[in-house]
Write a structure and sequence with these properties.
464 residues, alpha+beta, 2 domains, eight-stranded mixed beta sheet, 21 strands
Length: 464
Amino acid sequence: MTEMRRSEYGAIIVGAGPAGIFAALELADSGLRVLLLEKGRDLEERICPIAGRAEKCVSCRPCSMVSGFGGAGAYSDGKLTLTPEVGGLLSTVLDGETLQELIEYVDSIYVRFGAPDRVFGVGSEVEPLVNRAMLAGLRLVPVRLRHLGCEYCRRVLEAMRAHLCSRIDIRSRANVTGIECDGRRVTGVRMASGETHQGRFVICAPGREGADWLTGLARDHGLSVESNPVDVGVRVEVPAPVTEELCRVLYEAKLEYYSSTFDDRVRTFCMCPNGDVVMEATGGDDPVVTVNGVGYAERVTPNTNFAVLVSTSFTEPFHEPIAYGKYLARLANLLSGGVLVQRLGDLLEGRRTTEARLGRSLVRPSLAAATPGDLSFVLPYRYLTDIVEMLKALDRFAPGIASPHTLLYGVEVKFYSVRLELTPSLETGIENLFAVGDGAGVSRGLVQASVSGVVAAREVLHRA
């Protein structure tokens, strides 16, 4: 029998996405011995084998697009939403003034480590866009936003890692299988390697990719959880001039619509001006390939892409929103080997997009690996109806969005994980065990994920 090795730390952080990194930054100079564990690769080793090539996703485990130092944010285009109204659910545990102060705090840290100075969504040009959206039956949520771009994301993360590596212990490719407890108090973590790391405090920050792991941990330890909605939809790609005004003023237009047919909430998400559509794997024990988008600080492409998502909150007796989202994504994988792409005109005419029809499109697909097909074989009628209604409303706001040549990629799914029952300091029902970030269901973006890491770390410092 192999002897298990043990090591002792003041605080252990599981996951090196934005929540885990900001918890580590907060603790780095505290005098505590801190261990940051990440099951993915280190930053310089995070390479997607098919990036920029017309090949099918091979579902690497773990996927370097969503796992590794920096989390899913490392390959994102780095949108820092500086308004409490969007980007997470921390407003349910923190008062508005405190949350805004923390948002400004983490923003200052991003700037300190190299984020650009410019902030979008401010000035006299915003209000006319809000009014114009209202006339189209849409609600535009003005958001102060700092855009990093893929290039700056990488540089900021490199600077953060360089700052941390001499102050804390960082281990990549370190898979945590569970936690250890003494009664209802956490005492450490167990590793797939057989090691056990002891720690007075444990902060779990597994990211969306680690949602299944955190759900299993909650089940094993009797922690109360609540299902979050699942967002299902498509990634829309249009010529960049169609959204040029919106992107120049707002960078990302956050628009909300309630469908007339079903009264479902539909929204835009993750607008990427002059960006690319990309594939990513969800990771975990049962990975599926989904679609996403990225934008750049220094590179310009001819298209803009954004998601149109339908929010669904399931009721009793169903408790598996993540499984449902994966099921729909798996249908697209089955039909295409990865991601489907369809022209809006073909969808409206009830026909599949072929290579020939795609070749005649005025919009050239930025994701060459996508397979022309028919999204009606994948997405339920209700979702497709909601999406088409939303696109027509968007077309009244920004003419050209509902062009027959507009491309729809599927499936895009946002898994918001189950939400653990947490205290205002983000502590679970196990003493000294905290859960933060997207994987804990409390955030939905870089800024609130970062804030959640700070909240937990400050409570650790208060108790240490």
